[in-house]
Amino acid sequence: MLKFIQDVLTLLVTPPGMLLYHLAIVVSIMAGLQAALLNRNNGRFPTRLVGGLSVLLIAQVALFIFGGLQWQNNLPPHSILPILDRAVTLTCLVWLIWLWTAPEASTPGDFTHGTLNLVVVLMLVSSLFIWRQAPLDMAFNAGWLDYAWQILSGVIALTGLVAIAILRPPRWGVGATSMILFMLGSVAHLLWKDTTSDLPALVRLAQLLIYPLLPVLAFRERPPVPTAAQPAVEKPANSEKDPNITPRALNSWLMALGAAGEDRAVAVTRAISHTIPADLCFVVEPPDNEGVITLSGGYDLLQDETIPATRIHQDKLPGMLNAIMRGQPLMLPPQAEESDDQATLAEHLGMEHCGSLLFIPNNTGASPVAGILL
Q: Which of 347, 111, 103 is CA-nearest to residue 222?
């Protein structure tokens, strides 16, 4: 059994087994990227996640290229491969912590992330200078630089574990497990490392267990977004958040049945607002020949007043346009980085934030007729 384990560890740090290790890491990162692109949250492009995973992919591909050069004996005996391997491992660890602890824009998280990346760069430059002075027949695992890199990796992994445990982002248990595996890999390498090799086999074994967990990052639910305190507004008597048929709502529907012309649209949105209830309600007309979507019959439940019609070009409401064309409802919850539809509506309606949005199109015929926006 021990011989089998030793053979596996040797395979991870010697050609051609190194090729399998690099392929496994790259495939795992690409799986995470594919999951991020396929599981877009409400149609929004996951910029931070895709950017972070792209950095991991580029770093691992660069390491693979240098490993291939070393295999072909195109690098000097004291090549930069051992140091580059530690630097790439630590850089990927820093980016993984950032992806887990700061899925949304965060000034403290981004500043800490940038600082740790700078520490890695400084460690890389200083290690290259020191390694050049070492004896040519000395393996990197036998020197104190290897201890420095592994201790630094363990400390950063522990910091990431504490941060994840405190912040508890969605699926935080997977992130915590990744940090624990990183620490175990570094500690195991320091205890049982092969002093005749330049590369850390046990650290690589730990990474083979960590990187297949990357797709979990794409399936995390976004945490609730805190909103700025809004001044208290006295709501009408029947403005509970549960759908109900109150006398006021019933009277609104009776008025809607008797309304005609342009007044009918306002009467319908008033009745819907009193029934759901919804703070704002509009009748949405499909794009005209000029590609303009009209929001008519607007009603403000809080102020109990109508809202003038608003005309918005379809390019500024991509989600709503897609819902109209497909005849499928569109629901957007409140979030830190609002979608194009939410930002556009907030701008045209004079609001700081749009909040949650529900659009229900009416496609009973061959072509879109209208829809209701809440």
A: 103
**CB within 8 A of 26, min separation 6: which ones?**
57, 60, 61, 64
**Are the C-beta atoms of 128 and 80 separated by less than 8 Å?**
yes
In degrees and rounded to multiples of 5, residue 58 shows phi and psi of -60, -45
| Residue 262 buriedness (CB in 10 A; 0-12 / 13-18 / 19+) | exposed
Q: Are strands 357-362 and 305-307 parallel, antiparallel or unpaired?
A: unpaired
3-state SS, residue 298: strand
Length of the chain: 374
Q: Per-residue pLDDT tens for 101-126?
A: 988 888 888 999 999 999 999 999 99
The whole-angstrom separation of Cα 355 and Cα 194 is: 58
pLDDT tens readout for residues 82-102:
999 999 999 999 999 999 998
pTM, rounded to two decimals: 0.60
Determine the angle formed by the axes of helices 81-101 and 144-167, rounding to 10 degrees: 10
Burial of 239 (0-12, 13-18, 19+ CB in 10 A): middle
